[in-house]
Amino acid sequence: MRFVIGLPFLWLGLFFLLPCLLVLAISLGTYAPDSVPPVELGLSFKSFALLFSDDLYLAAWISSLRIAATSTLVALLLGYPMAYAIARAAPNRRPLLLMLVVLPFWTSFLIRIYAWMGLLADNGLIEQFLRWSGLASNPGTILGTEWAVHLGIVYAYLPFMVLPLYATLEKLDHGLLEAAADLGAKPFAAFLTVTLPLSLPGIVAGCLLVFIPAVGEFVIPDLLGGTETLMIGKVLWDEFFTNGDWPLASAVAVCLLVLLVGPIAIFQRNQARSLERRT
Amino acid sequence: MSSTVTGDKAIVRIEGLTRRFGPIVAVDRVDLEIARGELFALLGGSGCGKTTLLRMLAGFETPDEGRLFIDGQDMTDVPPYRRPVNMMFQSYALFPHMDVAANVGYGLRRDGVKAAEIADRVAEILALVHLQDHARRKPSQLSGGQRQRVALARALVKRPKLLLLDEPLAALDRKLRESTRFEMVRLQEQLGLTFVMVTHDQEEAMSMATRLAVMNAGRIAQIGTPHEVYEHPASRFVADFIGIANIIGLDGGGWMALRPEKIALSAERPALPRTVAGRIVDVAYEGDRSLYHVETDAHGTMTVSTTNISRSAGAAFARGQSVWLGWSDEAGQRLEA
Fold this sequence. Notes:
The structure holds two protein chains of two kinds. Chain A is mainly α. Chain A has a single domain, classed as Orthogonal Bundle (MetI-like fold). Chain A contains 13 helices and two strands. The longest helix of chain A is centred in the N-terminal third of the chain and has 34 residues, at 55-88. Chain B is α+β, with helices and mostly antiparallel strands. Chain B has eight helices and 18 strands. Chain B has a six-stranded mixed beta sheet with strand order 6-7-8-3-9-10, with helices on both faces. In chain B, helix 2 (100-110) crosses helix 3 (115-128) and helix 3 packs across helix 4. Chain B starts with 9 loop residues before the first strand and ends with a strand. Chain A binds chain B through residues 173, 175-176, 178-186, 189, 193-194, 197-198, and chain B through 58-60, 79-82, 85-87, 89, 91, 93-97, 106-107, 110-111, 154-155, 158.
């Protein structure tokens, strides 16, 4: 019994905590280009100092947070009506609608992003459609812009927004909306005063599930974004694989982790509270 | 019979109201008038259409046919949020994210009443239901009885022309239910409002309502005061649904309803116009009264009740005992259907 309970902890210790400590150790080392691996362990804060002195990293941070925040907002605005519609659909149709939401997961994430490259490319389907429909006579290439990065993030993370929202909206007692209407609330007022506040745990959960991975996203900005799209995940990749500066890359990773601890803690508290409310 | 109300006194007028759900006719061509200041009960078993009728009054269901007037105005197609009607829900439907004061003040805020006036009116109504000390509690921090009073206060605070109550006492335990019954009648009289209540509990309807409608299969079987409906049931259904009735076939055809307490039970043949001999097959001692099932040759098994006046007697007759039943000519009600 003790072994069964201990197994997950062993797993987490071995594959989560240990790597984290390794990254921390490397971030405190110094860059040694001639040794393998290119790092000399020690207790140096040089890499962190560099992070805070070079504007590039701050700019990448701010740009990552901005892109993640706007993408989260767009995902919320798209995901809320979707989740609402599924929660209000006939009970026997909900499983099908939910399956459609998670259907994209049946294909590899990477392949789907490559598919978007094709759609967004020069003379790709989307550009052709825009020209054919007359919506834009000379739309220009979308691929390689920040638009494409936003689009990719919203597309990839939308299910993570829809599912927790659906979970809270589905539990919402329809009688409460009848009570609101009975007391004189027009449908939109009833939504603002009853549905929206009661779905707040779902909104918080969905937003954090999109925001947290989006901040550190690497694949989407790398494949869909251009050179002017600066995101911290991409900076990390460049430091590690292009420049081979392991300590600096590790310092970036440590900062990313520290920065996301706040939102993750909010997420945990939110989950714990909505669990409490259910019991 | 008091089944109609003179025109201008009627707060509710329903004409041929019908509501279908697929092949099921939930409410079937119902005509009904309810007078101002009444405590009117819609009584019936589950699926009789009483709740659908109430929901049409609130505006949650749209009738397929017929018209519905509230205070003389046609409300048939008016949405719930524009009706001068408030409802107390069976589940109470209190907003879990608002405290008691916010729940009660919700309807006033929707009407754009000034904050100071809302505070006054909420405090006033909370005092009326003895919840003035619980204004800052959330519904989850209240007992079942307190939640019921919050729901009532929330529906009353807008002083609706019509207050609808969907099984208002169903969620309370028996003891609380009885005291709440009197409390609600007191409030209704004090505020001078019209209450329309749905219930499956005939005792509740009988003790609270000024008039009641017994519903069956989407139609109104009988409308009248509790006294009229109990003592003068119009049909076998009503006689059987309200209280206990012995349905006796008459010589010339037709039926008669005879209540158990109208029958005298004795060991010797009583000096009454109608007598029948029988044998007791079952005794149910209920404390205040005893119920006997008596097997008779003339009318099959009949139910008779005796009031247990003396403490020592217990059930006065034993199972298997041969007895006589007797009743007067006026004791029974001839049934039309």
